[in-house]
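writing this on my phone so excuse typos. first protein, seq and then structure
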Amino acid sequence: MRLRPLAALSIAAVSAVLLAGCAGSGGGTASGSPTAAAAADLCSAQVPSGAATDAVTVSGDAGVAPTLSFTAPLQIDKLQAKTIGKGTGTPVAAGDFISYAMTAYDAVTGQKMGDIGYKAGQLLPAQISASSPLGQVLGCGAPGERVVATFPASEQGAAQVYVVDLLSVVPSAAWGAAQTPAAGMPTVELGDKGAPKITLPGGNPPAATQIATLKKGDGATVQSGDQVLVQYTGIRWSNGQTFDSTWDKGGVPTSFSTTGVVPGFRKALEGQTVGSQVLVVMPPADGYGEGEINTKDLKGETLVFVVDIIGAQTAQTR
């Protein structure tokens, strides 16, 4: 596939070219269970190195924003990728979610455009696949891998040079420390892969929104307006039936802004930490409004959600 460079875009938007074709937005079909075949496909997806990548010198350790040097203008005829620092541990496979960071330089002027992802909360984890630019650049690298990539000019702008660091593989379910269950709230039992089964306590639903942290994560704190990557299951209090769940859609997390959801969901997210699992019970006022309860919509329903917070990107970096 042809990849466009990122000239004229701020470094805050630099990740767009590497995320094209990824499934982190919830629209993907990649499996949440990588296989040996998926790993092999990802290994063969990495594009070869060449004269352009060989002409770039990179200084600094992986995981820290590097310094690049090359003679500008750098002639780049096609996308190239060269691994300059090997990672350790298990190689990534197609379907994995990864955290990553990158630094961009203008290939014509030699000037640094910026860097992103080296601080918590700057980029959402992304799902990697053989057909995505991230897969074509990183291949099946292991955490700690550092790759220099050169992008040719296109109608969108001038050629560019990137260094991409594969930081870690991110679990697709909350990984935080288990917390003491809140008395009187629904109980949650997790399946082997993390999918929750919610059991209601019986009786009338609460009149005000109730929130309990089931697992406490060690990541960045979610702020108002952040873009979040989450797994969730939602059920109706009226009958205990699931009406929506990412786990029922292949177990692939979805992303959205905290300000783009109903008030109860927003309250459950903001102030929590990445890696946490949150239980929220929201009456209609914090959900989809009052109305006659029926199976066609969620009006009048008290809703129960279990939400796993996989990642968060601050509004300032979008």
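second protein below, same order as before
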Amino acid sequence: MAELTLLQAINQTLEQQMEKDQSVVVFGEDAGFEGGVFRVTAGLQKKFGEDRVFDTPIAEAAIVGSAIGMAINGLKPVAEIQFSGFMFPGYNQIVTHAARLRNRSRGKYSVPLVIRMPYGGGVRALEHHSESLETLFAHIPGLKLVIPSTPYDAKGLLTAAIQDPDPVIYFEPKRIYRAFKQEVPEKEYKVEIGKAKVVKKGKDMTIVAWGAMMREVDKALKLLDNVDAEVIDLRTIAPMDSQTVIESVKKTGRLLVVQEAVKTLGVASELISRVNEEAFLYLEAPPARVTGHDITVPLPKGEHHHMVDAKRIAYEIKKLKNYEV
């Protein structure tokens, strides 16, 4: 069992799925010859040729629109949007066609499409390169949205996404592409889409996060003494496994949600609402959240003022634990 970074796990998965299934094709801006800005697709064009791994024009609407056409005609495209903040020209195609074709055709057509997007900050890039836009996809019926936080889950979720008959948005937390390694099985396996993971059991509170924020939560807990938190990696934003969170809150009585995205109308808001609806009488403190600020991501020099870090999370954990009516 090899130790891989999150980036290497994604690359391995793409290679394995392309070897297994001739209908899988990979493409995007610089995704072919260069292997992508972050080299996630490095080596794939050399192995599978330019017909299956190729570069596209700088035209996100064309990338997504072409991918939808491929998907409904028998291929399994894995399209890359270079940064998630670049996806807006293609958002029209994602929302008006990819998400609706199964319903529009009354099941005659499905869209087995994966759209990969590096997302989030922490790499000192510009604003369109650093945003966390998961809410914009989670709000759309017909789309699935997954975000891995470990190399193991990166492989399992991407395998499941490629083999899914419906469109899956696959967000890659670029901040942790090469941050650490983890043992990843060589053989194919799937991580179920729509199922959260209880990473650590505890009794003092429930902490929920996803993507790069999982590492920040881990760092925050190491800064504190005498906090026995139950930690949940949401993994799938849509469909959201709120039931795992609700059952945890019924046990702990306290909830903290950590998201990198801006505060207003975020995934944290939705998750807290669901907990209030189904576990309100179990709560011993108001649910809390740690989020980005409601601003455009600052330029690199000021990015650290916006980013959610371990110190901010630790402060809220301490505050939540000490809350008394």
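Residues 6-20 form the longest helix (15 residues). thats all i got for now
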